[in-house]
Amino acid sequence: MKKTILGLVAASLITTPALASWQSELFQRIDTDTNGVLSITELEATGCKVNRKFFWYADADNNAGLSKKEFLENRQLFRRCK
User: Fold this and answer.
1) Among 2, 15, 58, 80, which residue's CB has the most CB atoms within a 10 Å radius?
2) E strand residue ranges, 1-82
3) Can you say how many angstroms the Cα of residue 3 is from the centroid of all Cα atoms in its chain?
């Protein structure tokens, strides 16, 4: 049992940097004006299906843009972001 848990922890540590890199690349690709937040316009321009109600839900600090953290924590709310 302990070996299984240790193996799972090790596997998650190994794959986390690759996942973080992929997520960073996605955010940078969508953030076309490079201001560090994603607007509805930027999301729609890259093909994301944006429901404005979900966008405002994800925008926890109400600054009319999604930070990297806000976007990645709520990415499932936006469809087809590439």
Assistant:
1) 58
2) none
3) 32
**9-49, pLDDT tens digit by residue?**
445 544 455 657 888 999 999 999 999 999 999 999 988 88
**Residue 79 bridge partners (DSSP):** 49
Query: Which class for 20: exposed (0-12), middle (13-18), buried (19 or more C-beta within 10 A)?
Result: exposed
Q: Say what the pLDDT of residue 21 is.
A: 85
**Closest by CA position to 33, among listed 22, 25, 41, 21:** 41
DSSP H helix total and E strand total for the chain: 4, 0
Q: Is pTM, for the whole model, over 0.85?
A: no
